[in-house]
Structure formats: structure tokens, C-alpha cells
């Protein structure tokens, strides 16, 4: 078991399991629909609609996991050249901006969820608010992650790669390609 796997909390494990379940359901529905259309000249009308709902949820759940594990894309060429204190200030500012974005996502998702509570999708009958609720869940969990990162940075428990100019992204010896020189 790797260090990444041992640091997973119950919420992260739940989100990952939900993502696997969603991908499985979506894949089976789409595959089944393709087979039904081309082999039997029929199809499941509900397949496209439910797959779209699941896809929206998968996108938001994936963004939570990406934030938690620190794998979102980032350009830090300038920040890595700054002194440690300036890097910390940039870290705090970026997290404050991300928290503000979480608030904006929450606010917009809340309004959309409220406005669509009584609207149902045409074929499946699923409330449209269920799709917009994904923004509520994602923004709340991302805000908790960001607030936790800020708290750890204030306590001095911040991961060194977040503020160290020497930390580079490299392939570990476990992930090294066969035949590559070290």
C-alpha cells in the first residue's frame, strides 16, 4: 500500500467509490444503448439523460479528489523563484481566491437547485435540482479541503512541496519506465 492510499479519509474513499460506481453505471448504460440501437434497432430512452446527470456528478466529484490530492494543473514558474515567505503569501492568496470561487459556486448552485426543485427531466423524471446539487456538494467539500490546507499552513504542517522551490515533479523509481536511465 502506498502512502497516498494510507492517507485517504472516509470521505475521500466514499467519493472515489461513488466515482467508480457512476462510471460503471454510465458505461453500462451507454454500451447497452449502443448495442440495443445497432443490433435490435431500439434503445433505452432514459440512458442519455441519466448518463448526462452522472457525468455532471463525476466531473464535480473528480474535481474534489483532484484538489485533495493536489493534481490540478498549475503554473508555478514565477512562484517557485520567490523567497519562502513570498511563496507562502501566494499560497494563502491563491487559497483565499479558491475559497471565494467555492462561495460563488455554492451561491449559484443553491439558486439553481432552489429554482429547479419542482422541475423534472422529461424522460427519467429525476428532479433537475439533483444535477445542480452536485455544485453544492463539490463547493462545500472543496471549501473544507482549502480551509484545512490553510489551517495546516498556519500551524506549520504544510507539505514542503507546496512552498519549496527545490520540490520538482519527478517520476519515482517505482513508476520509472523500463529501460530509462536514472
Explain what this protein looks like in three dimensions:
With 182 residues, the protein is an all-alpha fold. It has helices at residues 3-6, 10-39, 45-69, 84-115, 129-155. It has one domain. The longest helix has 32 residues, at 84-115. The radius of gyration is 21 Å and the shape is elongated. The chain crosses the membrane at residues 18-38, 50-67, 88-106, 126-151.
Keywords:
65% helix, 182 residues, mainly alpha, 0% strand
Q: Helices, strands, pairings?
A:
Elements: H1 3-6, H2 10-39, H3 45-69, H4 84-115, H5 129-155
Helix pairs in contact: 2-3, 3-5, 4-5
Number of helices: 5
The helix content, as a percent range, equals: 55-70%
- Count of distinct structural domains: 1
Quaternary status = single chain
The count of β-strands is: 0
* SSE order, one letter for each helix or strand: HHHHH
Please state the CA-atom Rg, rounded to the nearest Å. Answer: 21 Å
Strand content: under 5%
Question: Gap between N and C termini, in Å?
Answer: 24 Å
**In terms of per-residue confidence, which ranges show pLDDT below 50 for 5 or more consecutive residues?**
165-177
- Coarse morphology: elongated
The largest sheet, given as strand count, sense and whether it forms a barrel, is:
none
* Mean pLDDT, all residues: 83
Please state the structural category. mainly alpha
Amino acid at each position: 500500500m502506498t502512502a497516498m492510499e494510507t492517507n485517504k479519509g472516509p470521505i475521500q474513499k466514499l467519493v472515489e467509490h461513488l466515482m467508480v460506481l457512476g462510471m460503471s453505471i454510465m458505461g453500462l448504460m451507454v454500451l447497452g444503448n449502443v448495442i440495443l440501437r445497432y443490433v435490435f434497432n431500439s434503445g433505452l430512452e432514459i440512458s442519455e439523460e441519466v448518463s448526462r446527470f452522472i457525468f455532471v456528478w463525476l466531473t464535480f466529484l473528480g474535481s474534489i479528489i483532484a484538489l485533495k490530492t493536489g493534481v490540478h494543473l498549475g503554473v508555478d514558474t514565477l512562484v517557485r523563484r520567490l523567497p519562502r515567505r513570498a511563496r507562502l503569501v501566494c499560497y494563502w492568496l491563491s487559497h483565499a481566491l479558491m475559497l471565494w470561487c467555492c462561495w460563488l459556486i455554492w451561491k449559484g448552485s443553491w439558486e439553481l437547485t432552489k429554482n429547479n426543485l419542482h422541475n423534472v427531466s422529461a424522460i427519467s423524471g429525476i428532479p433537475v435540482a439533483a444535477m445542480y446539487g452536485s455544485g453544492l456538494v463539490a463547493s462545500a467539500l472543496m471549501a473544507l479541503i482549502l480551509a484545512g490546507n490553510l489551517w495546516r499552513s498556519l500551524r506549520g504542517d504544510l507539505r514542503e512541496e507546496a512552498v519549496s522551490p527545490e520540490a520538482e515533479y519527478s517520476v519515482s523509481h517505482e513508476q520509472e519506465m523500463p529501460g530509462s536511465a536514472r
